[in-house]
Amino acid sequence: xxxxxxxxxxxxxxxxxxxxxxxxxxxxxxxxxxxxxxxxxxxxxxxxxxxxxxxxxxxxxxxxxxxxxxxxxxxxxxxxxxxxxxxxxxxxxxxxxxxxxxxxxxxxxxxxxxxxxxxxxxxxxxxxxxxxxxxxxxxxxxxxxxxxxxxxxxxxxxxxxxxxxxxxxxxxxxxxxxxxxxxxxxxxxxxxxxxxxxxxxxxxxxxxxxxxxxxxxxxxxxxxxxxxxxxxxxxxxxxxxxxxxxxxxxxxxxxxxxxxxxxxxxxxxxxxxxxxxxxxxxxxxxxxxxxxxxxxxxxxxxxxxxxxxxxxxxxxxxxxxxxxxxxxxxxxxxxxxxxxxxxxxxxxxxxxxxxxxxxxxxxxxxxxxxxxxxxxxxxxxxxxxxxxxxxxxxxxxxxxxxxxxxxxxxxxxxxx
Length: 416
Hints:
- With 416 residues, the chain is of the alpha/beta class.
- It contains ten helices and 18 strands.
- α2 runs parallel beside α6 and α2 crosses α9.
- The longest helix is centred in the N-terminal third of the chain and has 19 residues.
- The protein is globular, with a radius of gyration of 21 Å.
- The mean pLDDT is 95.
């Protein structure tokens, strides 16, 4: 069924009894042309674009839990294209353009809201860095605008502008940036991929990768072996574990990134706001909850939960920037498993095993990258060639030293 306002009204009058399943629940076939390991946003987007852009419909997406049970449902929902370095800049620009057409293309409301993203700065040095970043964003063809303190006070009157340690000097805004509903993105891609004939197989954990004479031949799963000549590993924080099944060691550490949401409040925060000194970011959901987060927990883990020291750190940063938060009650928190690379930039590439591909290392940027990641991974798997906007995301850059240190944190991005 195609979703429309007319269908919503009609079904409401008829007791909502005519809605069909959003996607099928098929049993796995013995063989596919391609298998995508991971039923999150990137995996589902890859399957959708393989079918839509390249006509490959004999595809299976294998998810060990339920679709959207990983990082796609465990993030702070921010969508932006305000990256600085060549390589990242054009990639996230492409992703933002896909976001702007996504709801129409998928016929699904992912609640994409271009409410603007503001990065605050707190020193002369940070102002200079914001100017450089803004110029790079504009040169890429996207929007960026420097905001003075009076402009900020008009837009964000609730900030503490005269903090003793970190007074606010101004901000950099990208007005086309914003938020989307994280799990709705997974549902939209799943429904659209299913409509094109892709098999979405839940509760099907991959336990091994079959390789013969340097070529992938299929996978072993909890629901039996499945043959395929092409396999894509798109499993975010589990990338190192899945790659190990193929005898690979990826340059990735997995860390937990916590996020929090408060009780529902009246609309107060119209934009996404990032605190330049506290690594704190916040927005308000359509339900009224304040959604915010901060740094990763500084230890390796595969647990989808964090520890209290980082909770305290995030709350301290939020209170420093917005003292009004003291009266809001936090309802819940969650953790996403972040696949951190040494330079803080992702990987979309072939591996040394013929037919085996990897999409990983998204660090803090996974949610906003989902459309372009799927687009580029699908292009790579279908054609064997790297897409132009992902040309710098090569796996061998960690061997050659041609790194993309977006945050300028050196060779141990996982520690920052």
